[in-house]
Design goal:
heterodimer, A: about 325 residues, alpha/beta, Rossmann fold, seven-stranded mixed beta sheet, about 30% helix, B: about 325 residues, eight-stranded mixed beta sheet, four-stranded antiparallel beta sheet, 12 helices, about 25% strand, globular
Amino acid sequence: MNARPAPLLEVNGLNVHFGGGGLIPSLRKPPLRAVNDVSLTVMPGETLGLVGESGSGKSTLGRAVLRLGELTSGEVLFDGTDMARATMGDLNRLRRETAMIFQDPYGALNPRMRVGDAIAEVLRVHNKVPADGIRARVADLLNLVGLDAGYARSRPLDLSGGQCQRIGIARALAVEPKLIVADECVAALDVSIQGQILNLLMDLRERIGMAIIFIAHDLAIVRRLCDRVAVMYLGRIVEVGPTEEVFTDPRHPYSASLLSAIPDIDPDKGLPENPLAGEPPSPIALPSGCAFHPRCPKALPQCSTGEPPLLGRDGPHRAACILPPGEVTI
Amino acid sequence: MSETLLDETILSVRDLAVVSTGGGTTETILDRVSFDLKRGEILGLVGESGSGKSMTSRALIRLLPSNRLSVSGGQAFLNGRDILALDDKAMRAVRGGSIGMIFQNPSSHLDPVMTIGKQIAESIRFHKSVGKGEARRQAVDILRQVGIPDPERRFDAYPHEFSGGMRQRAMIAVALACDPDILIADEPTTALDVTVQAQILKLLTDLRDTRGVSIIFITHDLGVVSQVCDRVAVMYGGRIVELGGKREVIGQGRHPYTAGLVACQPAEGSPGERVRTIHGQPPRVGHMPEGCRFHPRCPKVSERCSMVSPELELAAPGHQVACHYPITQRLAEVAT
């Protein structure tokens, strides 16, 4: 690929730390390093999967990118503007061009508000359409997510989980975003409904062309939906690459063991022989060296000391591991 | 596990029914649920939310989540004794005695202000007449069996000092304290990360192999079922719609719902391809369709389906289906 187009989102050296302050130095606790020196790019119209176990920092990263959470240091370039040091005007633009879809569709909607009003509210706040056009636009948005315009008068509790999630998506689409962060947006839904929402996201991506950061722990869904995938472990991206390459040829032992732990729907295949031992350590007391070394079946003596290995800058498929690519398979 | 173990039926549930009463109406929650559980067997109960899989286990241990719910019929023979006919006192001896329970969220089922060891020892002393010292010795032994490192010291730890996976191991230890015949595991790994899930699933299958305990494994994850269960019961709208060996049910499901459920898994298909779906939504309590409860969503529906509810009948040896027109060969076009 020559003459690469400019990325929509470019994150450089992003850190998000919680706590750790205090006036008296001797009483200061170490901060919880939720996101640690993360760099990534998202191209316009691209779907990037963000996977990792709970506590790996994927949701914190997703929120920090949209400036819905505080960040400690680093750059978040959205369309060329550094949103980490944004003015009020820049932030307003960010709010108009990005949106988030949440995990719990009921929790994300006001239970006392008719869903049509919840969508209209977004249009009104962002001055998207003139006041007399709001009703028609709400009907359009409902149709776009596969609901009849008559649903505008329902309240969230009258709707099923799948229908509520469609309303959440309609609210996100109301701003005509260039980037959507979807945080576990199908995790709470039943399998037969999950597919409907995934297909909707695929359809909308083709019709509207927005980029999606898809945060999920379900790797099968990520493989189906995402162009590229980034694997996080304890606040760092340990591997990033085109989805199929990462799934078929993982270069980091953590990605490899995560992939081997997914239960396949194959009655003839039993449990994995040697599941990865232990659990992720607390992000307050990160292990020295590579944070994965205490659980890594391939760890070398030098993995436990010094700076953690870097993700590297070259090529589309990169891993933060000192092992040569061929030796990672578990 | 040896074949002789699998021959002995330990639990036999017949026509279990649960109703919800209130506001002058009576709604059926569970309808004619029947299955057998053999010694040393892992039986999967799968279905979507509201299908009645958790309700089945709650009815068996008679811990229904609301006063409006009651068991309205059926029998459940545990070692030949109908546990649905027992009085409350006798039932308390069964719960935690012959039947142990593991839930999805260990944090809300462990006492936060009591040490892990005490909670296990408490159960041992409630069900067996042993002294404090002996109960402690047995509790430490069980903690070791469920893979908790340094059990002597961990005996005195509180639940908040354990990680998520360790807490789930602790709850398994409490459930195992009195050497139960049956372990009911309700979504035991849903809240855990996949790498930890693999460890807990390994532990459960090891316990089955070493202690011969039977497990009723409730889950919505067909991948987990494929890996750990011997037989599977698929539930829909409060009924078992298909029951059989996991190879037959997951590989060659005969009920259109089972086949649809397998086809809609995101893992079935290639990247970028649309996921197959079952149109519509699972029925809600109070809005159960007449006849077969799946008929409004079924691609093979005919007039009879909307009028007559099909019985769970033998379709092949050891394989039961509740459908008027079961699939004879695998048809993937069930889900569109």
